[in-house]
From TrEMBL:
Official protein name in the record: Sulfatase
Organism whose genome encodes this protein: Stieleria varia
Record InterPro entries: Alkaline_phosphatase_core_sf, DUF1501
Pfam family, one: DUF1501
Length: 454
């Protein structure tokens, strides 16, 4: 699609709905709350590892565990004293002095949909159900909460998410603004940053249509009128005046267009990140935070993986002879060891690492016991999250798992506690309340993990 088309999908993507019952005093109160804590980070890059990486084969190896538990890979020393990582992450090992590891993430959601929602919102789902459906009763994405409480004022979107909508059958909730209203949705794009012709249709005008004409004729209004039947009954689609202003601002902003222009990067930089969708997405994340975007969510894959070998996420049970260790050895771990160290280096070289929080995690970990297919199954009771930059300690481990990385032994951390820590680092009080569509106050986070903050 080469034209800037104001269809319902692209219209809502940039933002458009009303407040859904939120009052101006509450909005202002939320903004005041967001400013009461000194921020450590200006931006967050949330690298979501859909499918669930194994803690035992990445950042919490147990070399003294029994053969039925121990990874076939060796642990190697890292740049941080006392921290070992998987031998297939040699480049990441050199950057662990930037990293805080939380080795005691824990919850009870064994299904991808429920666990994914928990990880992306910091709020427990109503049930552990693989059929969990998206709903305005469920909590919004992190970036939408940030956009609601502390929106950008620099002309850039507050929150951007790409290049997938993740699902496991149905779409996983917490990828949008939910009851906060569509105006707080992340700017979502599904175009592949690794495509040679990558460009965003949202930032292009129809051929022959100038900005002056767009203002003069309000071409957008004509397109909106074509959607009138939808708008009559769609509460999601309210607020097109706000959409019009924001869309025009983006169309006329060199800063916005330049931020999304990967072609301006030297080939050597693009090669360092890796010529993969995920690699180029991580490069895009650096460009976006450098341009002033506050919250960037990059999805590793649109699918959990499962029976797929050369693409997909981290869900590797070993079905149909798709052995876990063959897959991660040839796909997930090599990509991770190229992109994550490169992103940290790039941020540091540009003076951005101290003000950019990088979060790397999945929705859960994997079972300590290796199954009959020489793979590991879902395990939410204990897994690892990686944080770097943005005000966190470097070369630090928070919490201790037991001898098999099966349960937390010390300092368990729930997803709502990680959410609170992310908000705290951004300068947003995790005790702030937002209001759902039934006007009920909901606290945005749990207990901040103060020990990981430098």
């Amino acid at each position: 699609m080469n034209a800037f088309s104001l269809n319902r999908r692209s219209a809502l993507r940039v933002g458009g709905a009303g407040m859904l019952g939120l009052t101006m005093p509450r909005i202002l109160a939320g903004q005041d709350a967001a400013g009461t804590i000194k921020p450590h980070a200006k931006s967050v890059i949330f690298l979501f590892q859909w499918g669930g990486p194994s803690q035992l084969d990445t950042f919490d190896m147990k070399p003294n565990a029994p053969d039925t538990v121990r990874s076939p890979y060796r642990p190697i020393s890292s740049s941080a004293d006392g921290i070992q990582v998987c031998e297939l992450l040699p480049e990441m090992a050199k950057r662990m002095h930037h990293v805080s590891l939380i080795r005691t993430m824990t919850h009870n959601m064994k299904n991808h949909a429920s666990a994914g929602y928990y990880a992306l919102s910091g709020h427990a789902p109503p049930s552990d159900d693989q059929r969990l459906r998206d709903s305005l009763d469920l909590f919004p994405a992190y970036g939408s909460v940030v956009d609601h409480l502390a929106p950008s004022t620099n002309g850039m979107p507050t929150s951007v998410a790409y290049p997938h909508v993740i699902r496991d059958g149905s779409i996983v909730p917490a990828q949008h603004a939910s009851f906060l209203g569509k105006r707080h949705d992340p700017l979502l794009f599904l175009e592949d940053p690794n495509d040679a012709n990558f460009r965003l249709p949202e930032l292009s005008l129809p051929q022959g249509l100038s900005i002056d004409r767009l203002h003069r004729r309000r071409e957008m209004q004509r397109l909106v009128d074509q959607q009138s039947r939808l708008l009559e009954y769609s509460a999601e689609a309210r607020g097109f005046d706000d959409y019009y202003d924001r869309a025009i601002s983006m169309l006329t902003s060199d800063r916005v267009r330049n931020a999304f222009d990967l072609s301006s990067e030297p080939d050597s930089v693009r090669d360092r990140y890796g010529r993969t969708s995920y690699g180029q997405s991580c490069l895009m994340a650096r460009r976006l935070v450098e341009s002033g975007v506050k919250f960037v969510t990059v999805y590793f894959s649109d699918s959990i993986g499962g029976r797929r070998v050369n693409d997909g996420g981290w869900d590797t049970h070993g079905f149909d002879n798709t052995r876990m260790y063959e897959i991660v050895n040839n796909y997930q771990l090599p990509i991770t060891d190229q992109t994550l160290p490169t992103l940290l280096d790039d941020l540091e070289e540009r003076g951005l690492l101290d003000e950019t929080l990088v979060v790397w995690m999945g929705e859960f970990g994997r079972t300590p016991e290796i199954n009959k297919n020489l793979s590991r199954d879902h395990w939410p009771q204990c897994y690892t999250a990686l944080l770097a930059g943005g005000g966190v300690k470097g070369g630090y481990v928070y919490g201790k798992s037991d001898e098999r990385a099966k349960f937390p032994e010390e300092k368990p951390v729930k997803p709502e506690d990680l959410a609170a820590t992310i908000f705290q680092l951004l300068g947003i009080d995790p005790g702030t309340e937002i209001y759902d569509r039934n006007d009920r106050p909901l606290v945005i986070g749990g207990n901040t993990i103060h020990d990981v903050i430098a």
